[in-house]
């Protein structure tokens, strides 16, 4: 089985491939395959429905704009509209496949071990993700502070972001201190509780999938 | 084994917070540090934990553990000897769950997976939270968070534990539990320092007691401890609510703070034009109450302001009448310089006739805030920020003003001026003011009403313990 880094690499590779080719067949096959994996892995219907919902506007939007405003013949425009629309679908469902059972922690830890990404960067990102829910609260409190002083701070006003930045700087400094106090030293060696080794069968799987894609591209006519 | 500070000086912007301080913490000691907010307790503990000067301040003198220089040690070596427990339980975890957080910390020490498992199990058992290993931090109460934080520094193997107001955000029972736990740990040989502004519950457990005075530590002789464990006196506050109108009405009001129910209130009314003091033990949920009344926190049941549910008020309209003095002054500021802030509130004051330029500048003089016009509000000292923040909100002069710890970090002279400012403005403009403060001894001089927590409910009480 592929580890998290290999899955990310494969997803990037396929994305590159479909960005450079114009096969509706391939895009649909990728999307359907991802969807089948999602179903086999028992992802909730709500989640899958959400992916479709997210897809509706960009898919229709890209399809119509290429179909209506393309430079070629009508058939060419129709084809190109389908290519672009199905490409968006493939991206969304491959993204969904990528995230199955993968937490930011696992992905970042795996990238750190496999690609030697710095620990400071990894834990910086994880810390920032943990702060996200608190931002919402901070925004509400900043807006209230403004209104209490007769000033309505809208989302486009820099004051709001300046204040949010003040909060973020305070939090990040506190967190950095806590991390230091818990023994985190930039650049120092750390052990790894969980190993995320490159998997040989993962490489084989990747190679097979990439080959299969070439075959599909050869055979597909639309 | 000892943690030693010699001639330690810590300064911010050339202003010494800690001045030529000498201190020894021997293994097996449980030491209490007291001193008003802003006296430098936090700065001292952060320096002893080796976080300063890396995270601010200029440090001279030395901090050593058995001759080894704490300030020069790499973090992963230092964490095995000394660690700090922070005041705010929310800011000290980099990971979302207990297990991931402990793994993060123990990987820093290059431990193997089996050693990590052992340490986690051992340290969680020590604080009695073995079942919490897979819990997410968002589901823990303040007391549980602090216990987990304590377990984490135990797991790292620190012999010296420094705790910076660890009980500021937790309930009474957790405070007692943790104090007992600290006593046990010190008997096992840990050297522990706790900074706190409330001496309750310590004197039968500690081995040494210091006051932070003028940037140095003054040892308090054991014979004098009883003075600090002050016998509270009772002051009578006369109620005169009959002649004023109810402004707020609570009915079966329930407020949750995370998982914990912090208020469960039957019917209670708050009256117009009064200055009301609300008292209760640390961590009982006073800030949550104020946030709720300031439309910043959800609630169940009913909280009516002027015949309309608070949750049904449009925030924009509500805040024309109601203001909250935030516990942290910087949350109140919306401009950069002191002058911009003052101009903004004068322009938006609900009482522009009262707040003439002369009156504002007279108060600035009394508050010792003159000559700061061009200064950024964020570079003012804690005390200056607090005074400015209060003046700004009183110039705005909303009909109802909630003051959350308005005296925190102020010296005695400032407290006197601030009390005069609050009372004079409140009486002249007929404002309704509600105050939460630890400094009840000062505030009781100016309050009209007193409401006290009894468990998780509020009740009017003529007697105030100060």
Write down the oligomeric state.
Answer: heterodimer
Helix content range of chain A: over 70%
- Tell me the overall shape of chain A: flat
Taken in chain order, the helices and strands of chain A follow as HHHHHHHH
Number of domains of chain A: 2
Q: What is the CATH superfamily of the largest domain in chain B? A: P-loop containing nucleotide triphosphate hydrolases
- Biggest sheet architecture of chain B: 6 strands, mixed
Poorly predicted segments of chain B: none
Average predicted confidence as pLDDT of chain B: 90
- Could you tell me the radius of gyration of chain A in angstroms? 23 Å
- Give the fraction of residues assigned to helices of chain B: 25-40%
What Rg of chain B, in angstroms, do the CA atoms define? Answer: 24 Å
Strand content of chain B: 25-35%
Largest interface: A-B, 46 and 65 residues
Order of adjacent strands in the largest pleated sheet of chain B = 6-7-8-3-9-10
Number of helices of chain A: 8
Key terms:
heterodimer; A: 222 residues; 2 domains; 0% strand; flat; B: 466 residues; alpha/beta; Rossmann fold; 14 helices; transmembrane helix (chain A); membrane (chain A); ABC/ECF_trnsptr_transmembrane (chain A); ABC-type cobalt transport system, permease component CbiQ related transporter (chain A); transmembrane (chain A)
Could you explain the architecture of this structure?
The complex is a heterodimer of chains A (222) and B (466). With 222 residues, chain A is mainly alpha-helical. Chain A has two domains: 4-106 and 195-219, no CATH class; 119-181, no CATH class. Chain A contains eight helices and no strands. In chain A, helix 6 packs across helix 7. Chain A is flat, with a radius of gyration of 23 Å. The two termini of chain A are 32 Å apart. The mean pLDDT of chain A is 91. Chain B is of the alpha/beta class. In chain B, helix 4 (113-126) packs across helix 5 (142-155). The longest helix of chain B is centred in the last third of the chain and has 18 residues, at 412-429. In chain B, a hairpin with a 2-residue loop joins strand 21 and strand 22 (457-460). In chain B, strands 6-7-8-3-9-10 form a six-stranded mixed beta sheet, with helices on both faces. Chain B has a six-stranded mixed beta sheet with strand order 18-19-20-15-21-22, sandwiched between helices. In chain B, 44% of the residues are buried. Chain B is 31% helix and 27% strand. Chain B has helices spanning 41-48, 75-78, 98-108, 113-126, 142-155, 172-187, 225-228, 286-293, 315-321, 338-348, 357-366, 382-396, 412-429, 440-443; strands at 2-12, 15-26, 30-34, 58-65, 68-69, 82-85, 160-164, 191-195, 208-213, 216-219, 234-236, 246-257, 260-265, 268-271, 275-279, 300-305, 308-309, 322-325, 400-404, 432-436, 449-454, 457-460, 463-465. Chain B folds into two domains: 2-228, P-loop containing nucleotide triphosphate hydrolases (Rossmann fold, 3-Layer(aba) Sandwich), CATH 3.40.50.300; 234-465, P-loop containing nucleotide triphosphate hydrolases (Rossmann fold), CATH 3.40.50. At the A-B interface, helix 6 and helix 7 of A face helix 2, helix 3, helix 9, strand 18 and helix 10 of B. Chain A: Pfam families: CbiQ. Chain A: Keywords: Membrane, Transmembrane, Transmembrane helix.
């Amino acid at each position: 089985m592929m580890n998290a880094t290999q899955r990310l690499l494969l997803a990037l590779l396929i994305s590159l491939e479909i960005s450079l080719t114009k096969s509706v067949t391939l895009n649909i096959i990728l999307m359907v395959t991802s969807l089948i994996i999602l179903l086999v892995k028992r992802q909730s219907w709500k989640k899958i429905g959400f992916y479709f919902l997210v897809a509706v506007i960009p898919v229709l939007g890209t399809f119509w704009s290429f179909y209506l405003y393309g430079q070629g013949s009508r058939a060419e425009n129709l084809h190109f509209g389908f290519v672009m629309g199905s490409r968006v679908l493939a991206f969304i469902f491959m993204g969904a496949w990528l995230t199955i059972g993968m937490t930011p922690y696992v992905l970042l830890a795996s990238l750190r071990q496999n690609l030697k990404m710095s620990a400071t960067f990894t834990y910086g990102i994880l810390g920032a993700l943990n702060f996200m829910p608190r931002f919402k609260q901070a925004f509400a409190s900043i807006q209230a502070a403004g209104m209490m002083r007769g000033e309505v701070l809208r989302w486009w006003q820099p004051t709001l972001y300046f204040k949010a930045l003040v909060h973020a700087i305070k939090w990040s400094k506190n967190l950095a201190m806590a991390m230091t106090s818990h023994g985190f030293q930039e650049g120092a060696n750390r052990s790894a509780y969980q190993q995320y080794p490159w998997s040989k069968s993962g490489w084989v799987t990747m190679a097979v999938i990439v080959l299969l894609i070439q075959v599909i591209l050869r055979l597909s006519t639309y | 084994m000892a943690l030693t500070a010699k001639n330690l000086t810590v300064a911010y912007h050339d202003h010494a917070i800690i001045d030529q301080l000498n201190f020894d913490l021997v293994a097996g000691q449980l030491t209490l540090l007291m001193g008003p907010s802003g006296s430098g307790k936090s700065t001292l503990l952060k320096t002893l934990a080796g976080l300063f000067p890396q995270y601010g301040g200029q440090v001279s003198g030395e901090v050593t553990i058995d001759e080894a220089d704490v300030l020069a040690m790499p973090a992963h070596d230092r964490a095995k000897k000394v660690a700090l427990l922070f005041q705010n339980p929310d800011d000290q975890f980099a990971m979302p769950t207990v297990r991931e957080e402990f793994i993060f910390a123990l990987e820093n020490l290059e431990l193997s997976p089996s050693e990590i498992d052992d340490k986690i199990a051992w340290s969680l058992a020590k604080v009695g939270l073995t079942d919490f290993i897979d819990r997410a931090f968002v589901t823990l109460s303040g007391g549980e968070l602090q216990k987990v934080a304590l377990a984490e520094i135990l797991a790292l193997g620190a012999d010296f534990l420094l705790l910076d107001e660890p009980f500021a955000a937790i309930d009474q029972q957790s405070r007692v539990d943790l104090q007992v736990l600290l006593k046990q740990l010190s008997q096992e040989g840990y050297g522990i320092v706790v900074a706190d502004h409330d001496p309750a519950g310590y004197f039968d457990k500690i081995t040494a007691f210091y006051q932070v005075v003028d940037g140095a530590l003054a040892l308090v002789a054991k014979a004098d401890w009883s003075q600090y464990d002050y016998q509270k006196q009772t002051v009578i506050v006369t109620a005169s609510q009959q002649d004023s109108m109810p402004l707020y009405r609570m009915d079966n009001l329930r407020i949750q703070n995370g998982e914990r129910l912090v208020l469960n209130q039957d019917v209670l009314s708050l009256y117009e034009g009064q200055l009301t003091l609300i008292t209760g033990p640390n961590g009982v949920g006073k800030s949550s109450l104020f946030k709720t009344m300031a439309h910043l926190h959800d609630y169940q049941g009913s909280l009516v302001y002027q015949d309309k549910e608070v949750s049904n008020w449009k925030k924009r309209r509500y805040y024309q009448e109601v203001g909250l003095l935030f516990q942290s002054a910087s949350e109140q500021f919306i401009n950069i310089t002191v002058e911009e802030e003052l101009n903004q509130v004068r322009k938006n004051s609900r009482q522009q006739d009262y707040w003439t330029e002369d009156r504002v500048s007279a108060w600035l003089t009394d508050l010792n805030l003159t000559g700061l016009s061009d200064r950024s509000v964020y570079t003012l000292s804690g005390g200056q920020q607090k005074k400015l923040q209060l003046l700004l909100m009183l110039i705005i002069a909303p009909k109802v003003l909630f003051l959350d710890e308005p005296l925190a970090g102020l010296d005695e002279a400032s407290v006197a001026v601030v009390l005069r400012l609050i009372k004079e403005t409140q009486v002249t403009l007929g404002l309704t003011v509600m105050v939460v403060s630890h400094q009840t001894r000062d505030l009781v001089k100016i309050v009209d009403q007193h409401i006290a927590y009894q468990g998780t409910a509020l009740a009017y009480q003529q007697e105030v313990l100060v």
